[in-house]
Amino acid sequence: MILALTGGTGGAKLIQGLAAEIDPAELTIICNTADDAIFHGLHVSPDIDTIIYTLAGLNDEEKGWGLAGESFATLEQLGCLGEEVWFKLGDKDLATHILRTRLLREGRKLSEVAERLRTALGVKSEILPMSDDRIETRVVTANGEISFQEYFVRQRWAPEVKQVLFAGADQSSPAPGVLAAVRDAAAIIICPSNPVTSIGAILAVPGIRCALAESKSKVVGVSPIIAGASVSGPAHRLMAVKDLQASAAGVAKGYADFLNVLVIGTEDQGIQTGIEELGVRPVLANIRMKTLADKRRLAREVLALV
Amino acid sequence: MILALTGGTGGAKLIQGLAAEIDPAELTIICNTADDAIFHGLHVSPDIDTIIYTLAGLNDEEKGWGLAGESFATLEQLGCLGEEVWFKLGDKDLATHILRTRLLREGRKLSEVAERLRTALGVKSEILPMSDDRIETRVVTANGEISFQEYFVRQRWAPEVKQVLFAGADQSSPAPGVLAAVRDAAAIIICPSNPVTSIGAILAVPGIRCALAESKSKVVGVSPIIAGASVSGPAHRLMAVKDLQASAAGVAKGYADFLNVLVIGTEDQGIQTGIEELGVRPVLANIRMKTLADKRRLAREVLALV
Questions:
Q1: Given an 8 Å threshold on Cβ–Cβ distance, is B83 in contact with A75?
Q2: Annotated domain spans of chain A
Q3: pLDDT at res. B158
């Protein structure tokens, strides 16, 4: 079993490549859930849903988020009823959130909901939320503390960030199967997701980081940063608050206690030594993934390293 | 102020006519809420919504229920996720239920939600649920007790009905403003809704029936039964369980303690005497409402009687 740790968009690209290169039933995925948010009283798990939709082949490749062929009739009507609609929830997507919310209210766990959703949509890979407990990424700005979605979607990562907190993480536990997956994995892949708010959130759940460090299997990461800039999103801006340089070397430093190999962009040839000094082996590759062919090629290169 | 008591579809036609014939701000409407149901964890108030959509000019005239130009993407996706989708909830309609559910969970009352919804959609008439308490119509069949929507929508009123119960009605109170509206109304109109499950449910809320009987204003009803058959729905089948004949005379008998006038179909000329004997004045009219012109004409005739 190959284990992958991931956030949403960025990581989903590599996940898609991995699921195409190996038997998807042999892929287990641990997802960030600290970006989960309540909109209109509905529980939204953006990263889990992105991964499920991607593996079900239902994702919108063009937009890079949500479902293909999506409509927004419910959201528009919520706007007419005076609700804030800056978080774009499509009609089909809402079915997921409506079902999740009902199941959670009936006492089911996030992990049970993820299992129900991925099974219903024919996804063969096991998808585990990092925790069944409520953990909430809070972004501290000069103007106060806001939720991750407020920062990321509503304010389009414009505010200067002073700190990133994972509210509830201290008291949380890994979801059922998470520690066993880390322990039993033949190899572990850290997807090119935000090292602070996606992978960092997963690592904030007590027990997961230790389990990774203790793993005897190879842990291979793919840098989400190329030449000092994020491939997508605000990762490069957020790394500073965790005392990490906004570079592939910063990524390696953030993961140094458990990472064996970091696949970095060919553009970052010059910082290989810095990464080696952290005890992480850098491997150069074309890590930009635009097409499915790019995703599969990078997945193959990563799989060859484990 | 003119007060109207109504259920959904049937009554909505007369409500539409009334709101077109008088200043809609002078029309107050008390709606049945015993058909309310929870679907997918969302609180649906079919009668309130039908009345609001109708008065907002958003209703689907052709289908006779729901919103015009409606799509069903969320419901279809809920079906893909393994949910039962026999109750047809459109995408725009779902916005109403999502908002209502959130507000109720935050501690708001059904009456506050109705006020928020009708205001947001520009409806000038005040819309009052009969009660803010949970009252649930239960239909007792040979095969056990089912909800009203299970009976009405899913089983298309096929089962033989032994009894109709209003669970929770005994302990309920009229919503704020309901008794005052009955007391203060210049005239009261009983819409051609199901006398058992719509108007009957309203009358089951302690205090409303007495207030109607004590009203000094004229109370005028329109029969939902013509020549022994319901204009729409299963009213004629349900009246027997309340010991009422399935006829306009049965309607008059059910309302005799508070009704002054009952507008009946010209087809029912022959049963006028039976209605007079109940102390209710029968008035013949064409009470079938197909077009807006029909609705307005009947509304004018009803208004002329009060």
A1: no
A2: 2-134+170-304
A3: 92
* Cβ separation A92–B71 shorter than 8 A: no
Q: Residues 6 or more apart from A140 whose CB is under 8 A from it?
A: A161, A162, A163, A164, A165
Query: In terms of DSSP bridges, do strands A187-190 and A218-222 run parallel, antiparallel, or are they unpaired?
Result: parallel
ipTM for this model: 0.94
Whether residue A185 contacts residue A214, with contact meaning beta carbons closer than 8 Å, is answered with no
A vs B: CB pairs below 8 A: 96
Predicted TM-score (pTM) above 0.90 = yes
| A93 to chain B, closest Cα gap in Å | 7
d(CA B214, CA B252): 17
- d(CA A136, CA A110) in angstroms, rounded, equals 14
Which one of A77, A105, A116 would you mutate to disrupt binding with B, by most B Cβ within 10 Å of its Cβ?
A77
| Cα R_g (chain B), whole angstroms | 18
Q: Provide CATH code, domain A2-134+170-304.
A: 3.40.50.10680
Instruction: Pick B74's closest partner by Cβ from A92, A117, A121.
Output: A92
Minimal-distance CA residue of chain B relative to A58: B77
Residues 6+ apart with CB under 8 A from A266: A284, A285, A286
CA atoms of B157 and B154, how far apart (whole Å): 8
C-alpha span between B123 and B115 (Å, rounded): 9
**CA-wise closest residue to B272 among B239, B247, B298, B238:** B247
Read off the tokens for A266.
């060919």
Q: Which chain A residues are within 8 Å of B92, Cβ to Cβ?
A: 73-74, 76-77
Provide the pairing of β-strand B37-39 with B27-31.
unpaired
CA distance A10 to B107: 39
By C-alpha distance, the chain B residue nearest A115 is: B81
Cα separations (Å) of B181 from A37, A198, B300? 42, 56, 21
Cβ neighbours of A105 in B, within 8 Å: 41
What are the pLDDT digits (tens) for A236-274? 889 999 999 999 999 999 999 999 999 999 999 999 999
**Confidence grade of residue B187 (pLDDT, cut at 50, 70, 90):** very high
Q: CB-CB: which of B71, B99, B105 is closest to A91?
A: B71
Cα–Cα nearest to B157, from B168, B172, B146, B171: B146
pLDDT digits (tens, 9 = 90+) for A112-164: 999 999 999 999 999 999 999 999 999 999 999 999 999 999 999 999 999 99
Angle of helix B46-55 relative to helix B110-120, nearest 10 degrees? 20
